[in-house]
Amino acid sequence: MPEPKDRQTIKVQAERTMLAAVRLPESTYDQRDPFGELRELAAQAGAVVVGESEQRMQRPVAGTYMGKGKLEELKAACAELNAGTIIFDHDLSPRQISKIEEITNCKILDRSELILDIFASRASSHEAKLQVEIAQLEYTYPRLRAMWSHLERIVGSGGIGGVGTRGPGEQQLEIDRRLVQRRKTILQRELEDIQARKRRAVEKRNTDHFTVGLVGYTNAGKSTLFNTLTEGGAYADDRVFATLMTRTRQWDLGGGHNAMLSDTVGFVRDLPHHLVASFRATLEEAMHADLILILLDISDPSIELHYETVLNTLDDLFSEVEKREAKEAEQSKREGKEYHHYQRPEYLVLLNKADKLTDQADLLYWQSRIPGSIPLCALPAKEDAKEAPLGQEKLIARVKRHSIGDIQELEIVVPLSDSKTIHTIENRTEVTNREYIDQFVKLRTKIGSRQLEQLRARGANMTVHTLEGEIIEAPQRTRGWTEDSDSPYAKKLDF
Fold it and tell me: Does residue 429 lie in a domain region?
């Protein structure tokens, strides 16, 4: 039996590579170009793709995923094309990787391993590096047995391992697993500290400003649009995963109004779950934004698949945020502390690169499929241009209207203890008068209907009056306050 390939590194730079896939009835891929995305991912990792091979099956083979006859064909093709690496367009188990390597005598990478390699090469900040390493350890842990040939060695009382690793009859595999788990625990604690600080910063930013998250499939043009709208200086390139960390900048909406716009990491089909989990904090700002912009490349033949991927990924992320927020709210309720109910932000879909279309049929189809979507050109205006590129003025007007709504002059009574609500009203609206009595403040303000809705959704403790004194909105009692008649919230206050 040949020795397993050295798997201490997953770098594929400059390696001649074959692409392979098993297409099952439930597989998701672009049928017009089945290997298009994997080809691009491999190229971004630095591999030289020399051939492709796929097999259609009703169900995968247990031991090798691909049929053995097809693997023999793949082996012969690799020998003929001088390819030393095979990348599969789906995930493989450790046993399958080991068995395929034995049959083909080539190094085998699956889709998750390839994506991890790209992320590792692009990570620049300390947080991103921590996230990537944790994701790599998550991937590595169940694959230890298949990754190193020395794992079955028995460590006796005088064997290798050092202090704390020696045990009667303990296997090297167990030692390696413990070391991986220990390293992951250390990294997770460090990452949690960073993310806790980030969540506090995000919460304060969301209180002070109307926030917008920019999401989409990788290489859809998010960073280009971000730079156009904010002059934020985000790295933008025509390649997958050009952005790995969230970048937030102020976005001038005109008329004295502004928002905070966040550029995020791009989504991709079949993104490894452990990688999504690791980068959840990277998307924290988008998850708690007031509005989410979904950017689609309408010129891409795979737009249908991209749209479904983005929606499914967002749904998974929002579900996890909702679970976490529900636990925190329940804990706060038990402790008698203030809490709010999490509410998913609304979506606005942007059809990027609409200016490149020669046939308007695709544009008309997507506009009818997604009512309210905006055809867009994400590029900045040319120096001699008399008007903004396609859709940008409409986008700004729509976001401004969403952030404000119909302006009306109202009086809002807020307890002084609810400093968060007071701060939000002071910063986001035009306050024309203030009155203080006991533990309350009455703010006379010009406020938009959407701004009022957002305050209420966040659980603000307030009573809203018309200028004639009519109560038009009861206070929220979802933050630990009781319905007791003695509560100041249960009756109208006389100012």
Answer: yes
- Mean pLDDT to the nearest integer, 61-76: 94
Residue 5 included in any domain? no
Query: Which position has the higher pLDDT, 480 or 196?
Result: 196
For the record, the structure tokens of 149 come out as 């040939």
Q: What tens digit of pLDDT does each residue of 218-256 get?
A: 888 998 999 999 976 655 555 556 555 678 889 999 877
In this structure, the answer to whether residues 260 and 375 fall within a common structural domain is: yes
Sheet containing 407-415, strands listed edge to edge, beginning at the edge strand earlier in sequence: 430-437, 440-448, 407-415, 463-465, 471-473
What are the tens digits of pLDDT across the range 7-28? Answer: 444 455 578 999 999 999 988 8
| Cα separation, 236 vs 228, whole angstroms | 11
How far is Cα 308 from Cα 459, in angstroms, rounded to an integer?
A: 32
Residue with tokens 């788990």: 181
Residue of 308, 124, 452 lying closest to 443 (CA atoms): 452
pLDDT band, residue 99 (cuts 50/70/90): very high
pLDDT tens digit string along 260-301?
898 887 888 877 666 666 566 567 667 788 899 999 999 998
Same domain, 449 and 392: no
The more confident residue out of 334 and 457 is 334
Of 88, 104, 119, the one marking the end of a domain is 119
Strands (E), 196-338: 210-216, 247-254, 257-263, 291-297
Q: What is the separation of C-alpha 33 from the centre of its chain, rounded to a whole number of angstroms?
A: 26
What is 9-39 written as a DSSP string?
A: ----TT-EEEEEEEE-TT----TTSTTHHHH
Please, what is the average pLDDT of the chain?
Answer: 80
- Please give the Cα distance from 246 to 3 (Å, whole number): 43
CA distances from 134 to 148, 190, 191, 273 (A): 20, 11, 9, 12
Which of left, alpha, beta for 65 (phi over 0: left; psi -120 to 50: alpha)?
A: left
Judgement on whether residues 351 and 449 belong to the same structural domain of the protein: no
280: exposed, middle or buried (C-beta count within 10 Å: 0-12, 13-18, 19+)?
middle
Residue 249 contacts residue 232 (beta carbons within 8 Å)? yes
Q: Domain boundary at 340, 367, 402, which?
A: 402
What range does the domain containing 73 cover?
A: 16-119
Q: Does 243 share its domain with 171?
A: no
Which CATH number do you get for residue 478? 3.30.70.240
- Do 111 and 154 belong together in one domain? no
| b/e 385-417 (16+ beta carbons within 10 angstroms → b) | eeeebbbbeebbebbbebbbbeeeebbbbbbee
What pTM did the predictor assign?
0.73
pLDDT at 48: 92
Whether residues 149 and 283 share a domain: the answer is no
Structure tokens at 323: 């679970």
